């Protein structure tokens, strides 16, 4: 039930948003060069942390823009929100 | 009125307005302001229900929403009926009918009472243990058990009431309008904060509002008078909204709360007509003040459940607030001073108090001295060991406690009484606080869990924060509010407060008895009939976690969620296992705090408003033509158009023949349409589809298959190049929104360098698809100046044209295998387009067909439907569509996955056609496929995905996915059905016109 501060629209109810899984997983530039294991690593492996998690979110019922969020999954506290392509403000 | 056990008039009860109501078919009278519980007590009705498992007679135990026993069925046998309503919360009104639950034939004589005698063989886990063997008998057991389980009766018909939802935003939400809540609301509102004050009761003021004794003074005024003043001032403040009869159900993260506002349940039938019954408030508060108070604890001893055994605070409330007399001879059983307040209050109203049984050795507080001075007999260091009386309490037995408090000594003393008030201390109502994610800490000195860590901007004040004495409540609340609301001062600093101070504390979770525990029934959870004996049994059997003990014994799992007894369950576990109370933890507090009706939760989203429908511009025509509809995503699509009482099968067969013999027309407006523009549009399509797009000429169309990154088919459709940098993509009807989302995702996150713009235009265009050998003639009638020759307008190409003044896009593409055209116009012209096609096609017997015929026609051609013939585990190779996967392209979404070790397996499930040996036999979709008969265990090779009787081929056809099916052409397989096997032969999935001659017919 959290409130998300969309970097393009401002604070909105989280029902307007769609979660998009772990952030900062770049699609390999040359997939054909990868072994099955390497490709599987990109394709399937995602972190599910109790604590600080880097996530992608989409303002699906708003501006439809994707952005990144750092969230503490243990209490849903949003630590930071930043645009796609920007460096995460936390490590 | 037969009886009216009332003391002098209470100001909360209007004795001038008599209200009649029915309970168990008998008519009674009460007064305006009474609850069902108080009115029943005034009529000397104490037997109200039967318990869940043992069917023991039960009465009214509390005066609030925590009531475990007095739960009733309201308005039985009507559409308005509601089960499990707490008699303590029902405000009586003319026409109210309530009845006891869980008893047959009547509450007074209940056959199920035999369970009480059988109780030695009905321990915790009885059902689990007994009905395990033989396993095959479960279905028989279940039938009987289901009938004896459950409390009230659910309504049999749709709820005719109106419910509503409302959003509220406020600066400060105050939950609970007791003295602390009123202080908070007034302080917040006076500091210009938009404030909302909620309380579940009819009146605000909590327990202080009827605290009329000289023993409690604030600012030299009797506490109730002082609070009344505060309330009068509070009501004058502008930026404050007060809602009574409003129970907060849930407290979620980020201060988002749900509350149920009860609007008409207290009104008579004629007054509630056409009004909203309940409203679900969805509240977003900047700050929340939780002032939910505390719940009095019962005491756990043998037979502590008889009608007439109540909470001490409830006895006081019935007397002081409702002015009714719970018993003529009262006894209190206590471990703290609060029973003495109740006793003094009763005594002062002339009600007889026989004795007070106190487990403590002594108490030196002023209230105790006052009680002694009044001549009320006090038994120190004593405990109640048994109670007597079946349908109403008659007598209690008490014994002296031993020094170590582990046993009782001496001889039994019997005391006659008809009401026993239990005072086992107080449990802060921390339910909402913990729901919000708050962490509790255990305070050893008085054995309570209190709020410790707050997860959002909130505070708990008053007794829900562990402050039980008036002076502490006022001082600590004032201090907390100052800090929390960031203000300099409150109205409540340096107020003089007089109240009795408790000095001696003692608690025993399970009181000792002169009998062995196996012979006693000390109830911990009254509603679910869970006793201390059951909890000990669970521990003996190895359960340790409180969550497990709860589920095994069902302690705390009733409609009251164990508001009274959960703490005792924890205490008994701690005492028995030798673990510290704070370390046992608590069970999880889950919403709702009190039960909600489904009606309140769904609000207005019922009937046709349950879900959103999307309808095409041609919808009226389909309705007028008596089409049957099917739901595709949110769309209502014409399914088939039955004529003259045709069955679905007959209609579909007729439509399918017509489309191939002459002409058919389909409303294809629901297909997803995405407008793609930009200098990199071609490159973008290259990356998202499996086939190549760079060389597609302007004005040409191409079928594309889209994969997920895991190589599985995701969606398909035809995309048309409208101009150099402008495409229009079509998607499946159900997949449109997801495809749009996926394309946007890649564009924004993986390929932001591409110059591409996407716009969803699904709703902007209406599409009529005309097909069949005469489709060309029909189109020629509508658009005479368009050259339809195969040279100028070949298959898989596009033209812009005009139908009269209406601009349209015409694509010559086909999903049926017939010569066909898709005509797209602006949505607002959709109906006109459709009518023109129908009129022009009349002479060719143009036949409107629905989705079912579309599915049949495409199956004849072996065209897949994503989501029917695929299920997210099919690659294009599995579908035998290798031709559409570009070998030359360096990359596209999902390409790398097509040669993972798993996706290149030869024995994957592959799409094939099936024909039945008996051409009239139509397979069931979803039917399993096997290769050997009489095999054990059966090896399932796959299943039928699409199956129809083809009128054009005059035989049954099917598509199926079969393990290794690609190499099985001509092989005989079997479809095992109930009692028989159907023989089928594997074929190519294309059944009709393999050479595609009909496309140019």
Structure description:
Chain A has 91 residues and is mostly beta strands. Chain A has a single domain, classed as 2-Layer Sandwich (Folate-binding fold), CATH 3.30.2270.10. Chain A is 10% helix and 37% strand. Chain A has one helix spanning 36-44, and strands spanning 3-6, 10-13, 18-22, 52-58, 66-72, 77-83. A 4-stranded antiparallel beta sheet of chain A has the order 3-4-5-6, with no helix packed on it. Chain A has a two-stranded antiparallel sheet with strand order 1-2. In chain A, a hairpin with a 7-residue loop joins strand 4 (52-58) and strand 5 (66-72). Chain B has 1001 residues and is α+β, with helices and mostly antiparallel strands. Chain B has 5 domains: 1-154, 2Fe-2S iron-sulphur cluster binding domain, sarcosine oxidase, alpha subunit, N-terminal domain (Ubiquitin-like (UB roll)); 162-294 and 428-497, 3-Layer(bba) Sandwich (FAD/NAD(P)-binding domain); 333-421, FAD/NAD(P)-binding domain; 667-857, Probable tRNA modification gtpase trme, domain 1 (Gyrase A, domain 2, 2-Layer Sandwich); 905-1000, Aminomethyltransferase beta-barrel domains (Elongation Factor Tu (Ef-tu), domain 3), CATH 2.40.30.110. Helices cover 21% and strands 28% of the residues of chain B. Chain B contains 24 helices and 50 strands. In chain B, the strands form 13 sheets. In chain B, strands 8, 9, 12, 13, 14, 15 and 28 form a 7-stranded mixed beta sheet that branches. In chain B, strand 26 (439-443) and strand 27 form a beta hairpin. In chain B, helix 19 (648-661) packs across helix 24. The longest helix of chain B is centred in the middle third of the chain and has 15 residues, at 470-484. Chain B is elongated and about 115 Å long. The N and C termini of chain B lie far apart (92 Å). At the A-B interface, helix 1 of A face helix 21 of B.
């Amino acid at each position: 039930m959290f409130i998300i501060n969309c970097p393009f629209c401002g604070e909105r109810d989280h029902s307007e948003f769609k979660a998009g899984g772990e952030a900062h997983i770049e699609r390999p530039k040359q997939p054909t060069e990868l072994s099955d294991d390497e490709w599987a690593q990109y394709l399937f492996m995602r972190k599910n942390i109790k604590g600080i998690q880097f996530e992608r979110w989409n303002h699906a019922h708003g501006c439809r823009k994707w952005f990144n969020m750092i969230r503490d999954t243990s209490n849903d506290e949003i630590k930071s929100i930043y645009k796609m392509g920007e460096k995460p403000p936390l490590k | 009125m037969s009886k009216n056990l009332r003391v002098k008039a209470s100001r909360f009860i209007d004795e001038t307005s008599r209200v009649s109501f029915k309970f168990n078919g008998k008519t009674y009278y009460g007064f305006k302001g009474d609850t069902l519980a108080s009115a029943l007590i005034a009529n000397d009705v104490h037997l109200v229900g039967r318990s869940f498992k043992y069917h023991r007679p039960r009465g009214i135990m509390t005066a609030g929403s925590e009531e475990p026993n007095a739960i009733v069925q309201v308005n039985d046998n009507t559409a308005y009926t509601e089960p499990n309503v707490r008699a303590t919360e029902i405000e009586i009104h003319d026409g109210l009918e309530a009845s006891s639950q869980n008893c047959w034939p009547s509450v007074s004589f209940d056959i199920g009472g035999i369970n009480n005698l059988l109780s030695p063989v009905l321990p915790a886990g009885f059902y689990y243990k007994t009905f395990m063997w033989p396993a095959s008998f479960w279905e028989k057991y279940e039938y009987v058990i289901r009938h004896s389980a459950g409390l009230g009766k659910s309504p049999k018909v749709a709820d005719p009431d109106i419910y509503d939802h409302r959003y509220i935003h406020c600066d400060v939400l105050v939950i609970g309008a007791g003295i602390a809540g009123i202080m908070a609301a007034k302080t917040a509102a006076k500091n210009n904060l938009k404030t909302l004050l909620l309380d579940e009761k009819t009146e605000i003021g909590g327990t202080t509002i009827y605290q009329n004794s000289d023993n409690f003074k604030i600012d030299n005024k009797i506490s109730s008078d002082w609070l009344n003043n505060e309330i009068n001032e509070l009501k004058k403040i502008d930026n404050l909204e007060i809602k009574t009869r409003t129970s907060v159900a849930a407290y979620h993260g980020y201060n988002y709360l749900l509350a149920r506002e009860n609007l008409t349940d207290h009104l008579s039938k004629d007054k509630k007509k056409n009004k909203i019954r309940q409203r679900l408030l969805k509240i977003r508060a900047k700050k929340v003040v939780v002032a939910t108070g505390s719940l009095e604890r019962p005491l756990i001893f043998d037979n502590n459940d008889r009608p007439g055994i109540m909470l001490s605070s409830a006895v006081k409330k019935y007397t002081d607030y409702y002015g009714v007399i719970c018993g003529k001879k009262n006894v209190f059983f206590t471990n703290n001073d609060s029973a003495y307040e109740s006793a003094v209050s009763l005594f002062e109203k002339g009600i007889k108090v026989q004795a007070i049984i106190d487990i403590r050795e002594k108490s030196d507080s002023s209230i105790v001295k006052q009680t002694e001075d009044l001549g009320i007999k006090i038994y120190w260091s004593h405990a109640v060991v048994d109670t007597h009386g079946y349908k109403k309490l008659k007598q209690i037995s008490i014994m002296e406690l031993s020094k170590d408090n582990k046993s009782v000594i001496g001889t039994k003393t019997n005391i006659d009484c008809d009401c026993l008030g239990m005072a086992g201390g107080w449990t802060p109502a921390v339910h909402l606080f913990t729901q919000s994610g708050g962490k509790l800490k255990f305070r050893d000195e008085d054995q309570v869990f209190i709020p410790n860590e707050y997860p959002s901007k909130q505070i708990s004040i008053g007794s829900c924060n562990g402050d039980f004495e008036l002076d502490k409540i006022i001082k600590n609340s004032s201090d907390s509010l100052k800090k929390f609301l960031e203000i300099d001062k409150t109205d409540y600093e340096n107020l003089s407060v007089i109240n009795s101070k408790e000095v001696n504390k003692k608690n025993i979770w399970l009181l000792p008895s002169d009998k062995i525990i196996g012979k006693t029934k000390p109830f911990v959870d009254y509603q679910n009939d869970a006793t201390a004996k059951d909890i000990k049994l669970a521990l003996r059997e190895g359960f340790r976690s409180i969550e497990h003990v709860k589920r095994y014994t069902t302690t705390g799992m009733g409609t009251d969620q164990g508001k009274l007894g959960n703490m005792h369950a924890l205490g008994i576990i701690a005492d028995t296992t030798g673990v510290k109370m704070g370390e046992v933890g608590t069970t999880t507090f889950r919403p709702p705090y009190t039960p909600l009706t489904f009606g309140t939760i769904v609000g207005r989203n019922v009937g046709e408003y349950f879900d959103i429908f999307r309808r095409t511009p041609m919808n009226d025509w389909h309705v007028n033509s008596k089409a049957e509809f099917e739901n595709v995503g949110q769309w209502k699509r014409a399914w088939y158009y039955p004529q003259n009482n045709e069955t679905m099968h007959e209609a579909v067969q007729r439509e399918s023949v017509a489309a191939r013999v002459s002409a058919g027309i389909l409303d294809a407006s629901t297909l997803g349409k995405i407008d793609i523009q930009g200098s990199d549009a071609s490159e973008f399509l290259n990356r998202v589809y499996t086939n190549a797009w760079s060389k597609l000429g302007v004005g040409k169309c191409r079928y594309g298959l889209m994969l997920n990154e895991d190589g599985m088919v995701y969606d398909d459709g035809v995309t048309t190049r409208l101009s150099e940098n402008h495409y229009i993509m079509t998607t499946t009807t159900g997949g449109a929104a997801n495809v749009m989302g996926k394309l946007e995702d890649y564009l924004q996150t993986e390929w932001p360098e591409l110059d591409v713009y996407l716009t969803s235009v699904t709703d902007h265009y209406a599409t009529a698809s005309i097909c069949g050998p005469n489709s060309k003639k029909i189109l020629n009638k509508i658009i005479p100046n368009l050259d339809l020759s195969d040279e100028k307008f070949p298959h898989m190409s596009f033209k812009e044209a005009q139908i009269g003044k209406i601009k349209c896009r015409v694509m010559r593409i086909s999903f049926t295998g017939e010569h066909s055209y898709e005509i797209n116009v602006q949505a607002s012209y959709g109906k006109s387009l459709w009518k023109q096609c129908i009129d022009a096609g009349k002479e060719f017997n143009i036949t409107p067909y629905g989705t079912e015929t579309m599915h049949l026609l495409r199956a004849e051609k072996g065209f897949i439907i994503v989501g029917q013939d695929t299920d997210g585990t099919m690659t294009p190779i599995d579908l035998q569509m290798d031709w559409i996967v570009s070998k030359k392209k360096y990359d596209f979404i999902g390409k790398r996955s097509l040669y993972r070790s798993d996706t290149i397996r030869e024995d994957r499930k592959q799409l094939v056609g099936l024909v039945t040996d008996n051409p009239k036999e139509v397979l069931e979709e979803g039917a399993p496929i096997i290769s050997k008969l009489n095999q054990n265990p059966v090896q399932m090779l796959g299943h039928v995905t699409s199956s129809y009787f083809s009128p054009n081929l005059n035989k049954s056809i099917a598509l199926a996915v079969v393990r290794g099916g690609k190499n099985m052409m001509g092989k005989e397989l079997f479809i095992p059905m109930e009692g028989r096997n159907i023989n089928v032969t594997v074929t190519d999935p294309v059944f009709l016109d393999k050479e595609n001659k009909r496309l140019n017919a």
